[in-house]
């Protein structure tokens, strides 16, 4: 039997991946995108509003009003990170058993209320306590949403959705800067409250309606979603079938063997370090706001508070554009690693330039390179999409690895910025820029290690399929990084003809177009 491809992928599918799908599946994906991605992006936007506002408030009067000094901003940020770390894995294990449409919006209501409570803080200790609780509530969101997205979408769809969702992480800080400028200029002193307090109040007011929307439109998992005004039973069945076709498993009971299995394959040992290094590889981006503030002296003001909050927003604009480019690029070439190598190289060069050049010579050049620090910020969605694909054969392992990526990344972030980017050394932070260049190089090393190990598993699986009669092929040998890899699906994209005593397995180039390396 020989196998050869007779159907090519239409160009429209490179623009948007649903345009070449059957009408029923296309309608289902349109509804899923409209509900899941809309809620996820809005909530992530609000989460980053609440996460970023502490820095904006600090440089807009909170430091002086509360008498903050030294590295206390770092400690406040670390308190949030500690809460964020503690809740990650427990939440993502619970989300495999509790309805995401209840758990995620409920936690969002809690963190929005706590954000508004920050406006009542009178001292450093209160800020630390509240920010810890905000981080604990917010810890439930990002890994849970990435897990849910990975429970619905195939490989040729997943990168774009994960990155479209992630762009909200840049839009939140951008809006926060404009919001702080508006609050400071328009509300400063209203009802006796300074502008930085109004920022916390407004952020909370924005977030609560988004959380309430989540109770209505957020889907659960394919196996737990019930028919509703959004999805018919036929469409839910399409969602289940799609995941079965690529071997992405539904929730299964926990057992000692299953939990130990989380640690017996290579996935956790490359994907988690890869994400840790990515997440801690953009530290110089935080220096621009301090660089602008350093131009001001007690006797002379170069930049206003509004300008200090607004000018660094170009970093997030770069992140939005590059995130979307990486998403389409990754899905088109059916590989996650090339954007990681490109962005890592770009970010490493940026850090070297910032470390090697003076602060106040060639102002325009330094301004541009501060903007370039956002070039690698969009890789999060691709890394977690890769994790969803590579570990999709075990639902609980997939959830655990995604949560572990985010949790251990923030474990590092809880202390690393204090060491390499101490506030008292801003904005020069020479050692921080040098260390970040090394971090980006290491990130690229782990990206390539993940790629080579996944290719090794593909070769082993193809060899196993080639040596096994088709009637005996088990779905257990379907690799999650080979969506539609099940040989039973070959009929969708290939033509089968008889030839005596010969079996030719499709090569990587001739596999279904949804393959992701």
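^ structure tokens above, recovered residues below v
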């Amino acid at each position: 039997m020989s196998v050869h491809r007779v159907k090519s992928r239409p160009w429209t599918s490179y623009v948007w991946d649903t345009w070449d799908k059957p009408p029923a599946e296309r309608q289902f994906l349109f509804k899923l995108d409209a509900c899941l991605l809309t809620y996820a992006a809005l909530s992530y936007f609000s989460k980053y509003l609440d996460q970023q506002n502490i820095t904006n408030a600090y440089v807009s009067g909170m430091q002086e009003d509360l008498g903050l000094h030294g590295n206390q901003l770092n400690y406040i940020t670390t308190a949030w990170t500690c809460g964020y770390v503690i809740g990650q894995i427990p939440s993502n294990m619970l989300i495999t058993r509790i309805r995401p449409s209840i758990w995620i919006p409920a936690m969002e209501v809690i963190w929005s209320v706590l954000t508004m409570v920050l406006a009542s803080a009178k001292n450093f200790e209160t800020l630390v306590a509240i920010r810890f609780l905000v981080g604990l509530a917010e810890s439930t969101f990002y890994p849970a949403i990435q897990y849910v997205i990975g429970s619905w979408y195939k490989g040729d769809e997943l990168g774009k959705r994960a990155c479209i969702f992630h762009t909200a992480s840049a839009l939140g800080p951008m809006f926060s800067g404009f919001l702080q400028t508006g609050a400071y200029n328009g509300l400063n002193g209203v009802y006796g409250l300074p502008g930085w307090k109004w920022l916390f109040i407004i952020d909370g007011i924005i977030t609560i309606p988004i959380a309430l929307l989540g109770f209505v439109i957020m889907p659960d998992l394919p196996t737990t979603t019930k028919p509703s005004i959004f999805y018919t039973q036929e469409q839910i069945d399409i969602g289940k079938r799609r995941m079965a076709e690529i071997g992405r498993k539904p929730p299964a009971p926990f057992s000692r063997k299953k939990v130990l299995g989380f640690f017996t394959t290579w996935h956790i040992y490359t994907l988690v370090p890869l994400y840790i290094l990515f997440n801690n590889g953009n530290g110089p981006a935080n220096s621009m706001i301090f660089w602008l503030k350093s131009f001001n002296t007690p006797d002379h003001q170069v930049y206003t508070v509004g300008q200090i909050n607004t000018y660094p927003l170009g970093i997030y604009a770069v992140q939005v554009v590059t995130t979307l480019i990486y998403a389409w690029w990754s899905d088109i070439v059916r590989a996650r690693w090339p954007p990681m190598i490109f962005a890592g190289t770009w970010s490493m060069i940026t850090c070297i330039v910032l470390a090697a050049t003076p602060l106040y010579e060639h102002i325009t050049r330094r301004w541009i390179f501060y903007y370039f620090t956002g070039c690698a910020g969009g890789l999060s969605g691709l890394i977690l999409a890769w994790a969803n694909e590579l570990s999709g054969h075990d639902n609980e392992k997939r959830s655990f690895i995604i949560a572990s990526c985010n949790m251990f990344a923030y474990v590092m972030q809880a202390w690393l910025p204090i060491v390499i980017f101490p506030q008292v050394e801003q904005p020069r932070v020479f050692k921080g820029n040098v260390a970040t260049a090394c971090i980006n190089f290491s990130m690229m090393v782990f990206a390539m290690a993940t790629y080579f190990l996944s290719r090794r598993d593909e070769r082993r699986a193809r060899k196993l399929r080639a040596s096994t009669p088709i009637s005996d092929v088990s779905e257990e040998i379907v690799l999650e990084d080979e969506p539609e890899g099940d040989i039973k699906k070959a009929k969708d994209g290939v033509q089968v003809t008889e030839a005596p005593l010969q079996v030719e397995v499709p090569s990587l180039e001739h596999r279904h177009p949804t393959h992701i390396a």
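The chain has 20 helices and two strands.
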